[in-house]
């Protein structure tokens, strides 16, 4: 071997060793960063859980301006922590994808090397097989030479089989890493979407706090007067609605909608706490002036301003609107009404804003709006109702409480209201 060729080979070997060492160092650094992100994520989750506990406690206290402001402040802190958590998860996912990319690059290089080794082995086999043993004997080859040739042939064939096996394993590893990387890229896209939604929720929460302080001028008496006014408006509206719905006479065929079964619908909130049940609950029984003895026609779920509200099932938006434009503080406020594929419809009310419109298709779990206290809500919550679709419609009817005004909103025959808990997953 010439000296120049030896130098070239040494340089190539040094380059390969340097690349392997560099990749190992990079992979080690990335793993350390992933571990650090995991610790940060765990810490943030603990802090968010503590804030949620405080928020739940504040929400259950007597309804005063002080507790309302405290609850809003805790909610802002929690959403801010959620944003930090999502940012940390995005960083972690980026590092995981980088690690997989490095692994995939290395595997692709190894696949190329195995392919070259297989090609070299095939060429060597071709040369060894070019002269049959009988021809070699006639040509004067000794038995020792023939045995050496046979041994070499067997070695090359065994090496070829090993290279083929290694190539197959590398391809499996490549496909596995590639699929995992694609899955993590989708997870990363979802996290970025969540981040944007959480930022919108934070803006809504801050606006709710500012609005409360502005409207009440930080006075307890003003706050209590606001609540009393909303309760009075609610009584008038419930009477308007009952009078109108009692005359609808919409036919509801029992076979036209899904039979009761847990899990047909998903919970519209990520964290579930029921504050008011369906039917003749203690609250509705104690307040017949509000519910007219008919019971509560939906369930109420605790939801701080800016909480993400999701579609309980895939479907088509029949309508969305804002009753506060007709009679402020008297009805659903901002609402979304969705028809599903099983004869059921759902309503989501007291929203801060909605993100979908009439005729739009939505998927299960899609964010359709953010919660708030619009309409006759005296505290932050989501009003979630389920209907037999055939017995419900969006229509207009005159308001008695706000004379000269006309509501446009979902209404239903009294027989069309269904208990949401008959269709939602069972709470553990």
Automatic annotation (TrEMBL):
It comes from the Bacteria. Pfam families: Peptidase_M23 (PF01551). This is M23ase beta-sheet core domain-containing protein. Residues 27-82, 174-233 form a coiled coil. GO terms for molecular function: metalloendopeptidase activity. The keyword Protein biosynthesis does not apply. The keyword Signal applies. Residues 295-388 form the M23ase beta-sheet core domain. Signal peptide: none annotated. InterPro entries: Cell_wall_metabolism_enzyme, Dup_hybrid_motif, M23ase_b-sheet_dom. Gene3D superfamilies: 6.10.250.3150, Glucose Permease (Domain IIA) (2.70.70.10). Keywords: Coiled coil, Signal. It comes from Candidatus Adlerbacteria bacterium RIFCSPHIGHO2_02_FULL_52_17.
């Amino acid at each position: 071997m010439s000296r120049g060729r030896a130098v070239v080979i040494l340089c190539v070997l040094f380059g390969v060793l340097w690349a392997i060492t560099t990749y190992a160092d990079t992979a080690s650094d990335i793993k350390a960063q992933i571990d650090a992100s995991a610790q940060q994520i765990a810490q943030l989750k603990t802090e968010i859980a503590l804030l949620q506990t405080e928020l739940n406690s504040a929400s259950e206290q007597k309804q005063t301006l002080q507790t309302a402001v405290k609850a809003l402040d805790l909610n802002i802190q929690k959403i801010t922590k959620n944003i930090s958590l999502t940012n940390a998860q995005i960083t972690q996912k980026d590092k995981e994808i980088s690690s997989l990319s490095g692994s995939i690059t290395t595997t692709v290089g190894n696949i190329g090397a195995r392919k070259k080794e297989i090609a070299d082995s095939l060429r060597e086999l071709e040369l060894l097989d070019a002269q049959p043993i009988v021809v070699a004997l006639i040509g004067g080859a000794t038995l020792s030479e023939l045995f050496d040739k046979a041994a070499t042939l067997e070695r090359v064939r065994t090496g070829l089989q090993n290279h083929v096996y290694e190539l197959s394993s590398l391809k499996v590893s490549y496909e596995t890493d590639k699929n995992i990387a694609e899955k993590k890229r989708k997870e990363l896209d979802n996290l970025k979407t969540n981040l944007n939604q959480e930022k919108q929720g934070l803006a809504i929460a801050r606006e709710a706090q500012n609005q409360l302080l502005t409207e009440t001028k930080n006075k307890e008496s003003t706050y209590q007067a606001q609540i009393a006014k909303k309760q009075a408006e609610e009584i008038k509206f419930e009477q308007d609605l009952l009078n109108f719905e009692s005359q609808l006479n919409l036919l509801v065929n029992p076979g036209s909608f899904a039979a009761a079964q847990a899990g047909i619908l998903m919970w519209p909130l990520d964290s579930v706490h029921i504050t008011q049940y369906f039917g003749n609950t203690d609250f509705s029984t104690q307040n017949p002036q509000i519910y007219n003895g008919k019971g509560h026609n939906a369930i109420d779920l605790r939801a701080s301003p800016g909480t993400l509200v999701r579609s309980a099932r895939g479907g088509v938006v029949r309508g969305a609107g804002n009753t506060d434009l007709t009679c402020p503080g008297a009805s659903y406020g901002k609402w979304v009404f969705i028809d599903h594929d099983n004869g059921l419809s759902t309503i989501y009310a007291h929203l801060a804003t909605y993100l979908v419109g009439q005729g739009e298709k939505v998927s299960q779990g899609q964010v359709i709006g953010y919660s708030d206290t619009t309409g006759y809500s005296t505290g932050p919550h989501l009003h979630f109702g389920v209907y037999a679709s055939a017995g419900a419609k969006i229509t207009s009817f005159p308001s008695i409480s706000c004379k000269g005004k006309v509501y446009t909103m979902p209404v239903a025959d009294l027989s069309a209201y269904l208990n949401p808990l008959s269709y939602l997953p069972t709470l553990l």
